[in-house]
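User: Could you go from structure to sequence for me? I need the amino acid at each position, not a summary. C-alpha cells:
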C-alpha cells in the first residue's frame, strides 16, 4: 500500500488509474489507507520519529531550514487583511 500511495503522490496520476500490474493494490484502497493513516496521525508520528533519529545522530542541519508562512497555522484565523495594497503610485483608472 505504501508504495502505491507514494507512486500516486510522486507521479500525480489519479488514484483510480494506479496500474494493477505494479502490484500496489487498488488505487481506491491506497487512497483509503492514506486517509485512514492521516486521520490516525501516522504521518505526523513518522515525521517526529525521523526528526528524533536525525537529531540523535547529529545529522539534522537546521542552518538551511526555511519556514514557509503558508504552512504555519495562524491561531484564530490570523489577522484580517485590509485589502490588497497597490505597488503603483496612483490607482489605475476604472475600465468598466
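Assistant: Here is the amino acid at each position, in order:
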Amino acid at each position: 500500500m505504501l508504495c502505491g500511495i507514494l507512486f500516486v503522490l510522486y507521479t500525480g496520476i489519479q488514484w483510480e488509474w494506479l496500474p494493477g500490474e505494479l502490484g500496489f493494490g487498488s488505487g481506491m484502497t491506497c487512497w483509503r489507507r492514506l486517509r485512514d493513516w492521516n486521520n490516525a496521525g501516522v504521518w505526523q508520528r513518522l515525521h517526529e520519529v525521523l526528526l528524533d533519529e536525525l537529531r540523535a545522530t547529529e545529522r539534522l542541519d537546521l542552518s538551511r531550514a526555511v519556514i514557509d508562512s503558508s504552512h504555519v497555522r495562524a491561531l484564530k484565523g490570523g489577522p484580517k487583511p485590509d485589502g490588497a495594497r497597490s505597488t503603483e503610485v496612483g490607482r489605475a483608472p476604472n475600465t468598466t
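One structural detail worth keeping in mind: The CA atoms of residues 1 and 29 lie 8 Å apart.
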